[in-house]
Amino acid sequence: MVFKNLLLTASVKALRRFLKIHPKTESRRFLIVTTTALGDTLWATPAIESLKQSFPKAYIAALTSPIGNQVLQHNPWLSKIYTLHRFTLSLWKQLYQEQFDTILLFHASQRLILPLCALLGAREIIGTSGINKGLDHLLTDRIAPAYEHEICRRLKIVEKSKGFITTQTLSFFLQPEETWPTIPKAPKKQWIALHPGSKDPFKRWPIQNFIQLGNRLKDSLNCEILITGTEKETSLLKQLTQQIPGAHMADPQLPLRSFASLIDSIDLLICNDTGPFHLACALNTPVLGIYSSTDPNLCGAHLAPCSLVIHQQPSCKPCLKRKCLIPFCFLQIGIDEVFQAVLKMLDQTQ
Question: How much is the pTM?
Answer without folding.
Answer: 0.94
